[in-house]
Amino acid sequence: MTTTLLEVRNLEKKFAAKSAWFKPKQYVHAVNGVNLQLAERETIGIVGESGCGKSTTGRCLLRLIEPSSGEVIFQGKDITTLSKREIKNIRKDMQMVFQDPMASMNPKLSIREILSEPLLAHKILRSEHEQLLSETMRLVGLPEEHLSRFPHEMSGGQRQRIGIARAIILRPKIVILDEPVSALDVSVQSQIINLLQDLQEELGLSYIFISHDLGVVEHIAHRVGVMYLGEMVEVAEKERLFEKPLHPYTRALISATPKTDPDEVKERIILKGEIPSPSNPPTGCKFHPRCAFTQDICKAIKPELREVEGRKVACHMV
Amino acid sequence: MPNILVVKGLTTQFEGEKGPITVVDQIDFKVKKGEVLGLVGESGCGKSVTSLSILQLLDKNGKISGGEVFYNNVNLVSKSEKEMRGIRGKEISMIFQDPMTSLNPVLIIGKQIGEVIEEHEKVSGTVVKQKVVELLKLVGIPRAEEIYYEYPHRLSGGMKQRVMIAMAIACNPAMLIADEPTTALDVTIQAQILDLLRSLKDELDMSILLITHDLGVVAEMCDRVVVMYAGQVVETTDTRTLLRKPRHPYTVGLIQSTPHQSKGERRLKSIIGQVPTPDQFLQGCRFADRCPKAMDICHSTIPPLFELDGQTSCRCWLYDDKKEEVI
Hints:
Helix content of chain B: 25-40%
Family (chain A): Belongs to the ABC transporter superfamily.
GO molecular function, one term (chain A): ATP binding
Domain ABC transporter (chain A): 6-254
Protein name (chain A): Dipeptide ABC transporter ATP-binding protein
Largest sheet of chain B: 8 strands, mixed
Strand order of the largest sheet of chain A: 6-7-8-3-9-10-12-11
Structural class of chain B: alpha/beta
Low-confidence stretches of chain B: none
Mean pLDDT of chain B: 91
Keywords (chain A): ATP-binding, Nucleotide-binding, Transport
Oligomer: heterodimer
């Protein structure tokens, strides 16, 4: 895990919000200066609550949403500057799996047609289709007969396997997984996570795993980035982060996740208040209104990500 | 402690194209006074239909086709719709997973909560308003007087769930049915709402039937647990025993599937196959085709619920003759 495959520098995404005559345009800062490095065969988890910008970040990397500024460097090229035609070639190497496989598939197409679309779009030789289709079905653990089925004939878990099959059929290097198991039942969820891990080993994939579920991220990720209101507040190796979270938000997030162990000593940190709206974020450290350690400096100055105890944290108090 | 709610042999059917489909099949459980009972299972296991059956809130195509629901020794199944209206909200209240779809979008918050009080108590308008503001404060809503006049879309998910809770406890019900109350919420907000439910339970001396798919929530909230699979109860026991020493192979699989349980292991344990839909239920034990311990008898005959001790019962042939320590 040494070669950096993808580097994200200062990624920003502003969405235009309310606009009125004669008034300056207002923006919602969904992603605000995110930095990331992804190595080969690495899984980086991005966690955070709704509205923290984790999905927007994922989509900006593939330019499914155009980033406002920043660089996404993949194989030496900044893909934010590429033309539409060039970005298509990049997507052969970077694919995405969505939360709801039903919503991301055409219900009128059979599984064979759904999986053939990327092959046609990227002009893979027709003679290779059959072999790729059957091999990919084997990889995701579905019988080949399912190729003639339709999405509605499959269960949620099987559909997500198809979603994964569609993403890996071009043998990409990076797969961005946006809440891939959130819509599934626990017993099926673990099947899919195991599948993702097997595929990573077999195909040498790198994952960006976006999720709100810390338990799942703790299992699958090598490194974890915690986002709050569009910013990374802590980035660390998984073991470090879960053993000793430093940022007060990370600590609260971990302590708020219910554990299935009845004997685990619970030091529960219950945060006050709600997640503020990204259209009107607090000044200084965006977490300060909910933080138990807030000082005057937190209200005035935005903390930068800095190196503390072998990880990066954005907090004045650590 | 006496039982506040006793469900006996409850069976609920829905009209299907090829005749009635049994979604809830002879469910038995009891809720003791002051207890939090968890009803756990995956999607389609019938846990929500069970709760809707208790309050007779089923859709038109569904009906209770057998069994009884005793609330303080009175059978609710034989009650008329008018009598049920007197019970809902007054004796037994319910909160739902998605607070947005349960609130009226064109009515201010205060009026919606007030409706519950006006329905069940004969009090003047000013008293109702005063009570509503008190309720909003009780469920931890800041600026209660202002929020009284707000519309639901102005509130966040967590706040809306607090409003739902205020509405549910408006008439001091003895029993609260909470159907996945925190599933749609973020974890930090979930922690707040669970904390609120816990403190209200003590303050108002309520019993809670908590329906959830999340074993973590069960571990934090429940005293006892009923595990459902494919419309049937498969295991009933206290929370500690359930998590420490699960008996039914399905419960074992479910607990092991949570990532927390496989800490440090590369692979997660999982259950093969998927949850069956009601038209796919097997003739024998409904879990047999996914069970790692299935025997011949499992495929032919449905196991009864075996009483293991006063606390625990389990629907599995492994526990025939009260064989202990099989798993």
